Amino acid sequence: DGGITQSPKYLFRKEGQNVTLSCEQNLNHDAMYWYRQDPGQGLRLIYYSQIVNDFQKGDIAEGYSVSREKKESFPLTVTSAQKNPTAFYLCASSQGDTQYFGPGTRLTVL
Amino acid sequence: GQQLNQSPQSMFIQEGEDVSMNCTSSSIFNTWLWYKQDPGEGPVLLIALYKAGELTSNGRLTAQFGITRKDSFLNISASIPSDVGIYFCAGQLSTGGFKTIFGAGTRLFVKA
User: Fold this and answer.
1) Is the peptide bond before B8 cis (omega within 30 degrees of 0)?
2) Worst-scoring range by mean pLDDT, A99-103, B1-5, B88-92, B96-100?
3) Residues on chain A touching B94 (C-beta within 8 angstroms)
4) CA gap B90, B3 in Å, rounded
């Protein structure tokens, strides 16, 4: 089954801890993305990667970090520097102009 | 930065009614995409439009890429309760770069 998987679905962390969200795709897409979604709002781009070993900051990159060591994987680390980390995080991938999304991870920082 | 204005913000309709929502921008887009998001899930692609003037259907859904390339609409005919969710438009700018711009979403509520 081709698709994008994100794990875990729900994640709880204490304030001040770093946490890494997983995103894997087996669609053989070159580009991958991370978005943040807050209640009642649209999607805001955190980071994106067009090819392996390369990534670019999006609109709200502060307090986040990523890596792209493999084509299939684009993990996102939410660091303690992120002021309001509680949100719904969406990973996407694309080949061309059309993006396809994973099921999302809801991160709650206590 | 670039903005997509999506309207309406929310809609409360009766089952069986038709629905129309749209997105506009001052920027020109090469691609328009429409997604639906169920609560707690990722957006699912409904329709992709790649050419100005293009009109595409997917079951009860119809979307059009505006002639000016600055707008798009999505119509849903004969709505049913499972149409409930958030509908997002998204556009890929014609000015190059790699970013897709998303609208803020239209929240659809359908009463049986």
Assistant:
1) yes
2) B96-100
3) none
4) 10
Q: Tell if the CB–CB gap between A48 and B99 is shorter than 8 Å.
A: yes
In this prediction, residues A23-47 reach a mean pLDDT of 93
Quote the mean pLDDT of chain A: 93
Q: What is the CA radius of gyration of chain B?
A: 14
Are the beta carbons of B43 and A58 separated by less than 8 Å? Answer: no
* Residues in chain B closer than 8 A to A88 (CB atoms): 40
Helix, strand, coil percent content, chain A, rounded in steps of 5: 0, 50, 50
Identify the band that residue B72 occupies on the pLDDT scale cut at 50, 70 and 90: very high
Q: Write the CB contacts of B38 (distance below 8 Å, at least 6 apart in sequence).
A: B44, B85
Note whether B1 contacts A101, CB cutoff 8 Å.
Answer: no
